């Protein structure tokens, strides 16, 4: 078994508050985490959400965001209303008036979209339809190899991958890729299987184009790397 996507981690000034928001929006369960707070999926999402304490301020748009799906206009309206009631808010990131998706932010300003019904690309996905990312074609191909997930879209420098077991798609929009404004507030945590080898996995990821990174983590039992676009991610001990 190859390395797996264990978690999508958020830097959070109030991890408990943010975990409760996302658990409420998604219908997931809040759980303890050794380093913060976790939200555990009850569907085929395949990875948990982790909310880790951070004092850093958000600057600019995040490199990735959720696209939530809708089965009907009433379903879309209900998801938006639920998010607003839990502390979300409408935001303007330059979307056009004729666009039918709704752009929101969670209580700490992390952007996400509630997609209108009838979106063919996300038709067979659950509530989390996609993790939409700003990134190059090369980084999409890197993550396909890193996770051993097939490319389900590769056209005009836009790419998408999806676990063979289903769950959300992870997409990269191609150029122009926005300049990086410091450490990303969202990052992937990967984990080898229980009988896996952390160092061997790190070496494999480096051979695919990752680079080792020092973000001041000090002496820890995980390894920090960056993908070919410079986005940070962590490789945790086998589990």
From TrEMBL:
<feature type="domain" description="VOC">
    <location>
        <begin position="124"/>
        <end position="238"/>
    </location>
</feature>
<feature type="domain" description="VOC">
    <location>
        <begin position="4"/>
        <end position="117"/>
    </location>
</feature>
<protein>
    <submittedName>
        <fullName>VOC family protein</fullName>
    </submittedName>
</protein>
<dbReference type="InterPro" id="IPR041581">
    <property type="entry name" value="Glyoxalase_6"/>
</dbReference>
<dbReference type="InterPro" id="IPR037523">
    <property type="entry name" value="VOC_core"/>
</dbReference>
<dbReference type="InterPro" id="IPR029068">
    <property type="entry name" value="Glyas_Bleomycin-R_OHBP_Dase"/>
</dbReference>
<dbReference type="Pfam" id="PF18029">
    <property type="entry name" value="Glyoxalase_6"/>
</dbReference>
């Amino acid at each position: 078994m190859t390395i797996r996507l264990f978690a999508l981690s958020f830097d959070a000034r109030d991890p408990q508050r943010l975990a409760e928001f996302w658990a409420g929006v998604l219908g997931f369960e809040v759980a303890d985490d050794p380093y913060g707070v976790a939200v555990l999926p009850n569907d085929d999402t395949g990875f948990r959400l982790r909310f880790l304490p951070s004092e850093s301020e958000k600057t600019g748009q995040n490199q990735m965001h959720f696209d939530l799906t809708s089965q009907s206009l009433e379903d879309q309206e209900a998801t938006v209303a639920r998010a607003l009631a839990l502390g979300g808010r409408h935001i303007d990131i330059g979307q056009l008036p004729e666009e039918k998706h709704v752009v929101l932010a969670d209580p700490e300003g992390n952007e996400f979209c509630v997609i209108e019904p009838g979106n063919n690309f996300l038709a067979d996905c659950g509530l989390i339809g996609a993790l939409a990312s700003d990134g190059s074609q090369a980084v999409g191909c890197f993550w396909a190899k890193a996770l051993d997930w097939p490319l389900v879209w590769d056209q005009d420098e836009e790419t998408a991958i999806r676990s063979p077991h289903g769950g959300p798609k992870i997409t990269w929009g191609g150029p122009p890729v926005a300049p990086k404004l410091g450490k990303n507030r969202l990052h992937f945590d990967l984990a080898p299987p229980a009988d896996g080898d952390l160092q061997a996995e790190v070496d494999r990821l480096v051979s695919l184009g990752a680079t080792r990174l020092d973000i001041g983590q000090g002496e820890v039992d995980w390894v920090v790397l960056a993908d070919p676009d410079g986005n940070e991610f962590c490789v945790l001990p086998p589990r």
